[in-house]
Design goal:
Strand content: under 5%
Structural class: mainly alpha
Largest sheet: none
Helix content: 55-70%
Mean pLDDT: 83
């Protein structure tokens, strides 16, 4: 027993020494720069949907939304690509230090994502005054559209299309777990699926999502993790960060994003994945590599990390908030479009944080505890002494 405890302590010490930016007392999902990046990704999505909302909602607007940079709203779609890169990094980190089998891994991922997505879908259907259909419920439950044939039926809460890509990536991770816990294997599988998606376009929708160029963005995240663990990101942080920001800035200034089809159907069909990866996924991967070793205990860093914690809640609740804001559009004040977008970002982030604290965290806690037994074991049953022959 003493040897087991010592070995376990040694493993914990080794991981603590080799992992350079764990937040104190938190697990791999709470690496501080990852949470900052999640907050940025959610903000970009809010910017994009806020700009689209302004375009189709009758608002008393005094000025256009940055008319000289029309690509800025489209650039907000890159928040999804940043989320995919982050997911690749986090899953590589989780698998490398975890245990359990493939099905246990997939079940844990569904418990983390599925129930809250179903709840947010139900809220959206009520707010949008849309009927509860069997298909919308099934899509929310399965996340991956396994009941679709050759035509993709988007979930009622349409931002859920990205979760189908997340789970297709998790399927590749589960295969890795089945045959060993190697980040290199995850990288190989995602690269294979991504490259194959540039050449082949399957008819069945779930296979379209699995064999898709967007898998390359998860591969980039895995690659950044491998570089981080080997210490290369610390050595090359400045060049990575400068190059990543420069590529993103050039893309905005030259309106390169306008040539990228940011609509979700193009992503599912596999026609936009490669362009998104080169235009947004690769630069964002460089940014991740550039800041992943950053340490900060400032108040603003902690606030941004909290917003990153709530990014999933913000991502899922903001479509409902936009519908509610549209219902009172006539009563809103006449301000510039930039003011509206900033207001949407602030309101959605604040409410997302509240939903995370009040709904998402308690829901996850109750799921982790599991269902209570229908009846407690009797005191006599609990205190029966073990048989000496057992």
């Amino acid at each position: 027993m003493t040897v087991d405890v010592d070995l376990y302590s040694f493993r914990l010490t080794y991981r603590a020494l080799t992992a350079s930016v764990y937040c104190a007392e938190m697990g791999p999902a709470r690496i501080a720069p990852i949470q900052w990046l999640r907050a940025i990704a959610a903000t970009l999505v809010l910017m994009m949907h806020g700009g689209e909302w302004i375009a189709r909602t009758p608002l008393p607007i005094r000025a256009d939304f940055v008319p000289s940079v029309p690509n800025l709203v489209t650039f907000g779609a890159s928040g999804v690509d940043l989320f995919f890169v982050i997911s690749g990094f986090v899953m590589a980190h989780t698998v490398s230090g975890g245990d359990g089998g493939s099905w246990q891994f997939l079940a844990s991922r569904w418990r983390r994502i599925g129930p809250f997505f179903v709840l947010m879908t139900m809220i959206f259907l009520v707010v949008a005054d849309e009927p509860f259909t069997t298909r919308s419920l099934l899509t929310a439950l399965t996340i991956v559209p396994v009941f679709d044939g050759t035509h993709y039926h988007a979930p009622a809460l349409i931002v859920g299309w990205t979760l189908a890509f997340e789970f297709s990536f998790y399927a590749l991770v589960a295969i890795t777990i089945r045959f060993g816990r190697s980040a290199g294997t995850i990288l190989l599988l995602t690269l294979t699926a991504g490259v194959a998606g540039t050449q082949f376009h399957p008819d069945w929708v779930p296979l379209k999502i699995l064999i898709n160029p967007l898998q390359l963005e998860f591969a980039l995240g895995v690659l950044v993790w491998m570089m981080w663990r080997s210490g290369w990101t610390r050595k090359l942080a400045a060049p990575f960060l400068v190059m990543g920001i420069a590529l993103l800035a050039i893309g905005i200034a030259m309106s390169l994003g306008l040539s990228v089809n940011a609509f979700f159907t193009a992503a599912v069909d596999g026609t936009a994945g490669l362009a998104r990866t080169w235009s947004w996924g690769l630069p964002w991967a460089m940014v991740v590599a550039g800041i992943i070793d950053t340490r900060s205990e400032s108040r603003i860093a902690r606030v941004i990390a909290k917003l990153g914690d709530a990014s999933y809640a913000t991502y899922l609740i903001h479509p409902s908030l936009l519908i509610m804001l549209a219902a009172i559009a006539a009563a809103l004040p006449a301000i510039g479009a930039v003011g509206y977008v900033l207001s949407i970002i602030v309101i959605s982030s604040g409410i997302g944080l509240a939903v995370h604290m009040v709904i998402e965290k308690p829901l996850l806690a109750s799921i982790r505890k599991g269902p209570r037994p229908l009846w407690p074991r009797s005191a006599a049953r609990r205190h029966i002494p073990a048989s000496p022959n057992a």
